[in-house]
Design brief:
The longest helix is centred in the C-terminal third of the chain and has 25 residues. The relative contact order is 0.17. The chain contains twelve helices and twelve strands. 37% of the residues lie in helices and 15% in strands. α6 links the parallel β5 and β6. The chain is of the alpha/beta class. It is globular, with a radius of gyration of 22 Å. The structure holds pyridoxal-5'-phosphate. The site of pyridoxal-5'-phosphate has 14 residues, from α3.
């Protein structure tokens, strides 16, 4: 009561932590809308354009009959399926409500107030949000001229407050990967008490032979963990399930900080069934990779200078013109993701959507 002598109890309002007022808002992808007569395409959230596999849908339908029950809190079946698929001990798997959920668990498990989390920028928008919510401090290191992680600068950004370093490869939104040799050289410079998270949300789309084998690196480095998701290549964004591969003590900490029963029963069966259907899913991924190549080749032929995207999206480095380009896309029914005055990210979608991306991009070249 001491510092509120002039207010009556009813005039006070509940106190919200100051950290929350420093939060950048997460901008969800715009829903699709189009002028009359034109199909709209949502290319703003890096979603998989394919509907769920019939076998996955069937499993979800069946599981829906039991949603009066809590899910398996230990996520046993999915954990075991992942352990077997990846060839890692089950104690090294931790699941969460999307890999963003797991990311929140990582920061909560490692950071006290004013501890630092280092990551590249631009990178995934959720990074500054989960960091700030935990009361920790985001330390951003600009991407280099090719829109790639500047790992030397990231190593130099380490202080004695650094607890976590996030390496996003392929990087959202620029699509670039770090290479195996540079990642290893970087890790050799990182003190062992700092957790390095390799975020591989787009791993399945990678074709660059120099990209790291993150699981091999995880096996070698006790301070490395890997973050993956069923939201992108596996097409389960709406069910919210992701996972970490981490050394046992870290995985145990992630389980402690998980929302109890967070990974729901529909998500669990869908993820298990998807692992069983990996061949069918890989065919779809291969199609999307082919479409990415078609878009990138087409754009380069038009004269665009593109970063080397290894994910299911392309990055238009448009600077000040980003909002104008994004508006032109919307006018033809393409919902894209504009990043302020940095650029525009466009997800690889259905072939007709991709065709329209090429048309808009050509028109832009012709008129600018
Ligand atoms: C989409 C994405 C994720 C995954 O998000 P979910 O919470 O699993 O849907 C994680 N990291 C990056 C970089 C992403 O772009």
């Amino acid at each position: 009561m001491s510092d509120s002598t002039s207010s009556s109890p009813q005039e006070l309002s509940p106190r919200i932590r100051a950290a929350l007022s420093r939060l950048p808002a997460y901008v969800p992808g715009k829903p699709a809308s189009a002028p009359e007569g034109l199909t709209a395409y949502k290319l703003s959230s890096n979603e998989n354009p394919y509907a769920p596999l019939p076998s996955v849908l069937e499993a979800v339908r069946e599981a829906a009959g039991s949603v009066n029950r809590y899910p398996d809190m230990a996520v046993t079946e999915l954990t075991n399926a992942l352990a077997e698929t990846l060839g890692v001990p089950a104690e090294c798997i931790a699941t969460g409500t999307g890999s963003v959920g797991v990311l929140g668990q990582i920061i909560q498990s490692t950071c006290d107030v004013d501890d630092e989390v280092v990551f590249a920028w631009r990178s995934f928008e959720a990074y500054p949000i989960v960091t700030t919510i935990a009361g920790a401090v985001p330390v951003t290191v600009p991407l280099d001229a090719e829109h790639r992680h500047d790992l030397d600068a990231m190593a130099e950004a380490i202080t004695d407050r650094t607890r976590v370093i996030l390496v996003c490869t392929p990087n959202n939104p620029t699509g670039t990967v770090v290479h195996d040799a540079e990642l290893r050289a970087f890790l050799a410079r990182v003190p062992g008490d700092i957790l390095v998270v390799i975020d591989e949300a787009y791993l399945e789309f990678v074709t660059d032979p120099d990209a790291p084998d993150a699981l091999a690196i995880w096996r070698e480095f006790p301070n490395v963990m890997v973050l993956r998701t069923f939201s992108k290549a596996y097409g389960l964004a709406g069910l919210r399930v992701g996972y970490a591969v981490a050394h046992p003590e870290i995985a145990a900490a992630l389980r402690k900080t998980a929302v109890p029963f967070g990974v729901n029963s529909l998500a669990q069966v869908a993820a298990v069934r998807s692992l069983e259907a990996v061949d069918e899913l890989e065919e779809r991924v291969a199609e999307l990779v082919k479409e990415r190549g078609r878009i990138a080749d087409g754009l380069r032929d038009q004269g665009w200078e593109l970063s080397d995207s290894q994910a299911n999206f392309v990055w238009f480095d448009l600077g000040e013109q980003s909002s104008e380009f994004s508006a032109e896309c919307e006018q033809v029914g393409l919902m894209v993701r504009q990043y302020g005055r940095d650029g525009v990210r466009v997800t690889v979608g259905e072939p007709e959507a991709n065709e329209r991306v090429l048309e808009v991009a050509q028109r832009w070249r012709d008129t600018h």
